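Quick log. Single chain, no ligands specified.
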Amino acid sequence: MEFPERGDVDHLVDPQPLPEFARVRYDPPVETLADPVAAARDELARLPLDDVPDGGTVAVGVGSRGIHRIDDVAAAVVAALAERGFDPVVVPAMGSHGGATPDGQREVLESLGVTEASVGAPIDARMDATKLDTVAVGDTDFPVHFSDAALDADAVLVVNRVKAHTNFSGDIESGLAKMTVVGLGKQRGAKSFHSTAIAEGYVETLAAALEVIESAVPLLGGLAIVENFEEEIAHLEGVPAGSFFDREPELLERAYDEMATLPVEDIDLLVVDELGKEISGAGMDTNVIGRYRVLNAPDPETPDIDLIYARGLTEATKGNGNGIGLADLTRQAAIDQLDLRKTYANALTSGSLAKSKLPVVAPDDEFALRTALSALGGYDPDSVRIVWIRNTEELRDLRVSAAVVDDLPVAASVRARETLGFEDGTAAFSER
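-> predicted structure:
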């Protein structure tokens, strides 16, 4: 598909005067766990390792999100299991990510620093999954699948972050339960889960599937990670199987308290330099931008953002542009980065089709901003509220238009004033 070049559209939208911008440092207080590696080793003691036969194989489920020091934590878990005389194996617990292929899932793990060499254990990335049972969730029959690589082990544990989900809100969102059900369900399990969850509710579907898995699989439990505003580990806790629905609500509440958010809630235009799967399952954290775009799930109440311009993809996402549909505008440079096979594998499995729709494609930054400002209606450079961020994970350093400065919280400080300029249609100051 060919999108219009600059000469094709330049006459359609008049140039707009741009506001002055301020470079801002947003520094809310945080707590950081001093030694996550030691904590991971210690918290394994909470799991029933005595139930594993001597020399038994333990499948360690590791997912595809950009969790702080996930490579170090995974390596610590593997080493501790090996020291106990077990035979650990890493199993990618990421549903359909990586294009729903073994090589793709290995590639995703490698982008997170998780390789056989770095963790000291083999990685079994088979996509095969066995149907354990079919259960009724509301009016829907839900086939529950589970990874063959994990089923082949004598015991299973998962390592994952507990955080706000990108599609729904509830007592249980992203965490150990979801990784066990969806991540280790591989593509088939993830697909059947999302189809059922959209119709019957995410928490209800998780609960039904987890009950099946716990009765059929030697699940030890998991290590739950909570991150702070800086996306660093604030808390790490071992949670035995059977306790996920007891512990995760409290951990989720802490995650919400620690969650990175924008410093203001009323925004005309949010500019995002990059989106990617390692940043959020939705490419951009939907709780940061206030958009779920999922059937039967209302968007978050805050923040209130009129337009979003997404400029590109991260290198680590390897072309998976799931989440680009959350933006209203993008540019040709982002389209050139897209791998639609990976993007569609994600969208078709999750059922969140809107996240993979293409927004309006501008030839460059200047025309994208011109278009966005015009589309706001009644544009005034002195009052327009623009926030410019690298991505929805890194929210400490950002830029805001002059009209936003007076509304910044105490934890945010202005470091410099800047005037936006362009070089060959690209925003010159966007380089960090």
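Residues 6-27+261-430 form one domain.
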